[in-house]
């Protein structure tokens, strides 16, 4: 076995030791409750012995969390992680499934509001309207394995942009590039604006009329339906327009791109995690792989 303290280093887990300590403190009790609840359900009744009695876990909670972070950060196979931690591959597989479920339920942290976490699109719009935050929205694609032959809807995963089988996720960030929300993965063939509509962004625009969202040219339909709220780059002047108008269009477009670039920085930060670069599972709803909302505890800015 490798030194456990070495495996908890930031180069392996992708987060600092202080953030790791916060995650351990936050998730230890929910994990214990989940494990005990599953055991009671399998036994068909409540606990019959004192807490702490019975067989001990060969892979304790902290090691389970560290193994999960290493898997998300570097995409190491479960068998390799089992060798590092001195357990069987199946033990690592169960541990990662447990921890990823807990991480996915945490939502995204709000640095300016300690203890507040955003889990739904409505939460993000409510926070933006209350704090006067201008949102940035964009979509990113993750390459996946080609679905098996004969599966219904197989072509839905073929992305015309990437020329690959992909799944798409929509991300919202603030003006500093901090992720506030992301949706579940959808087939890559779906248009960016359609994915946003399916998450209920039109309803959020109606209930929160003061919120503005900066978008790129892929969301012109949203800009047409929600003028003044969904803001896209200015349209290019027609051929033959005055040079002054063309120059003004170039300045406006550059200013819009400079304001919206922070969401691109957020997407780049997500791609540091190998699980967000390529998903080796078969194309399916793999929302727990959205690791930017999974691994980041309350930021300490």
UniProtKB/TrEMBL annotation:
Pfam families: DDE_Tnp_4 (PF13359), HTH_Tnp_4 (PF13613)
Keyword terms of this UniProt record: Metal-binding
Signal peptide as annotated in the record: none
Cofactor: a divalent metal cation
Region (Disordered): 225-258
UniProt keyword Nucleus, yes or no: no
Keyword Metal-binding among UniProt keywords: yes
Transmembrane segments: none
An example molecular function term from Gene Ontology annotations: metal ion binding
Residue ranges of domain Transposase Helix-turn-helix in the record: 57-108
Residue span(s) of domain DDE Tnp4: 137-288
Biased composition (Basic and acidic residues): 248-258
UniProt protein name: Transposase
């Amino acid at each position: 076995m490798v030194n456990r303290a070495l495996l908890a280093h930031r180069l392996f887990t992708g987060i600092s030791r202080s953030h790791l300590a916060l995650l351990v403190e936050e998730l230890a009790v929910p994990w214990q409750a989940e494990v005990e609840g599953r055991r009671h359900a399998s036994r068909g009744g409540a606990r019959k012995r004192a807490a702490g009695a019975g067989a001990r876990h060969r892979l304790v909670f902290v090691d389970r969390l560290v193994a999960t972070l290493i898997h998300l950060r570097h995409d190491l196979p479960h068998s390799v992680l089992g060798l590092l931690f001195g357990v069987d591959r199946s033990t690592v597989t169960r541990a990662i499934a447990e921890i990823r479920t807990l991480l996915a339920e945490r939502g995204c942290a709000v640095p300016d509001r300690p203890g507040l976490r955003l889990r739904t699109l409505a939460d993000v719009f409510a926070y933006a309207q209350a704090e006067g935050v201008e949102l940035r929205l964009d979509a990113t694609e993750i390459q996946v394995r080609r679905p098996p032959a004969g599966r219904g809807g197989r072509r839905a995963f073929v992305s015309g942009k990437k020329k690959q089988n992909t799944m798409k996720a929509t991300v919202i960030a603030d003006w500093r590039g901090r992720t506030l929300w992301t949706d579940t993965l959808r087939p890559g063939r779906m248009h960016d604006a359609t994915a946003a509509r399916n998450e209920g962004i039109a309803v959020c625009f109606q209930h929160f009329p003061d919120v503005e969202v900066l978008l790129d040219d892929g969301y012109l339909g949203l800009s047409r339906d929600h003028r003044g709220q969904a803001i896209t780059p200015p349209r290019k002047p027609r051929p033959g327009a005055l040079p002054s108008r063309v120059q003004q269009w170039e300045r406006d477009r550059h200013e819009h791109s400079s304001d919206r670039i922070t969401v691109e920085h957020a997407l780049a930060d997500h791609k540091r995690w190998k699980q967000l670069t390529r998903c080796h599972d078969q194309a399916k709803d793999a929302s727990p792989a959205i690791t930017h909302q999974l691994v980041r505890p309350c930021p300490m800015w």
